[in-house]
Predict the structure.
Amino acid sequence: MTDLLSRHSFVELGARQRARALLDSGTFRELIDPFQRVMSPWLSRQGVVPQADDGVVIAKGSIAGLPVVIAAIEGNFQGGSLGEVGGAKIAGALELAAEDNRKGIETRAVLLLETGGVRLQEANLGLAAIADIHAAIVDLRQYQPVIGVVAGSVGCFGGMSIAAGLCSYLVVTREARLGLNGPQVIEQEAGLEEYDSRDRPFIWSLTGGEQRFNSGLADRYVADDVAQLQQTVTALLQQGVPAQQRSRQAEHYLARLNELDASPHIDAATVRALYQGERS
Amino acid sequence: MRGLQWFNALSAGPAAVAGLPASLKVADGMLGGQPVRFIAVVTDPDNRFPRARTGEVGLLEGWGLAKAVDDAIARGDQRPIIAIVDVPSQAYGRREEALGIHQALAAAADSYARARLAGHPVIALLVGKAMSGAFLAHGYQANRLIALRDPGVMVHAMGKASAARVTLRSVEELEALAASVPPMAYDIESFASLGLLWETLSVSQIEQPTADDVARVGDCLLKAIRDVDGRDLSGRLGASNRAASSHVRQLLREQW
């Protein structure tokens, strides 16, 4: 109980507060802040009120003295969806971080991912921006760790779940969900029997943070606590680039999938056993 | 079947990589006197994963694409890689989500991006649908995008029915908006206005390409390969319908 009382929820913080909470005190500096009003050129003509930061916060600063750029997505604006401006903010920041490294400045990146993926009102420009983000993560990752954090409560879906899969390290909480397709879309495309989007325990059991960690699809599982997240991100930044990147293990995963009996429907325990063996 | 038709027409010779799922076609051919790797995702009615039987990019396809591209990188000769794109969607299913299809697609995007960074000219040839996560995994990391002009060639983030449901609109409302908002449209002309394509070209028989069609597309691919002058995706910026993407980058650079 004392443990619970001493915790400060990270999930309850907005994107800007999250970035500030992770950075060393006094080092937060936002780029293209909301007063510059760089907003989506596409939303208002569709009757959707745009937001002054387009739902993405880019902040530079340091973590344990290391130079860092944070891209934080605001899950409360349009479901954290990425349009042209928000997507370009993330891609552009990662591109500049990679450029820094080529000039000898060791800028790292942290991505705070609360997003449904492409903003459908800007469909193809969101998709193009996410391809740019993928490209920039793979580029920067050669030099420095790119750390993805899915804290919740929106989770990380669509093309940005692929971005999460490209990160050097992925941190999740119990409030996190991570998956390519949102439950509603799977139900729409494949039917209720395949995926019941209203069955929350079922969806959580397959795509929740704890399950992703226990099946080796995330690297750290932490409590929803500012201090613990801060410590975890710091330790991963200090660890440097990983020896083995998860997205480069095609042989391993193809071998595992070949062992699977794909006929019956699948449950969480089967995934853990298949991917982790005795660890689960 | 377009993807398979164009793969068969452009490539030659035996399979280049062993141990890939039947839904992937991978072979090397010759273009302008140099070896070129062609990769296509095709239908496989016997796919072990039922939601990936009609050309979708699923678990086996994502990891398999990664393996096929990694194999090209390992050859060390920077051979061009041509992704022939005819992918209706990613696989939507319970098995796919449970087993981490996002990670499989990340592996494919990772390999294509690393090939590009390693100096392979990577070209995507759009001959059919290029939808959402499937396109992100197979084609969108290319240095150059080429699309055939045809109503069946389209790029989008989500099918119309699902997009309508998620945005709380009717399909008719969605179509009306798509007609006036270029990034929301499903046709290739609107997509071209975003500046993301390097070239579009018409052929006489897109379903069953003629010898002349194949020759012209091969010529265009060769020009694209020779046009590649960098290892990033900056060649896609600059269109007026994508002005904010450049503007944001400029501001970030000034404030960095």
